[in-house]
Design brief:
This protein has seven helices and six strands. It is of the alpha+beta class and 182 residues long. The structure holds FE2/S2 (inorganic) cluster.
Length: 182
Amino acid sequence: MSTTHTVNDTQASVALSQSTMDRFAREVAKYPAEQAQSAVMACLAIVQQAHGYVSLDHEKVIADYLGMPQIAVHEVTTFYNMYNQHPTGRFKLNVCTNLPCQLRDGVTALVHLEKKLGIQMGGTTPDGMFTLQQSECLGACADSPVMLVNDRTMCSFMSNEKLDQLVDGLRASVSGPAQGAN
Ligand code: FES
């Protein structure tokens, strides 16, 4: 952790740890030298694990490391829900509101969570516990309302009662002050 790699441009700068750069190198080594860009998703995931989100400055470091335009990295960051572009709460709740789910109470679930958590879609609770987001299709339309918790745990048939149980259970599972997600 003693060495850092810094990128400076006219906007900002950021430093990534040596361990993060070592992890980048291990991912890039999985591909032919001329295809280093194939590691972009892995590098974004590594940064998010380390920092909780991927900033524009992080994207710049990754772009330079992989020899690709920053906008190409940004396109990946913004395409996938799993990449956080801002700090999030400890639990990130992504509720699917695509059309098939809209027709089966997806929006009802989102509105219920907004009321229960006291935040609007896209917001984070003041205690840093929950971030509420919309999601694109999660591939489980028949199970609507559906949602993902922290990009990994799929929850199906989320009635208002089940949503209440989920939120209360997540709160109860945490002891001590909330920390950053992921
Ligand atoms: S539209 Fe919601 S899971 Fe497919």
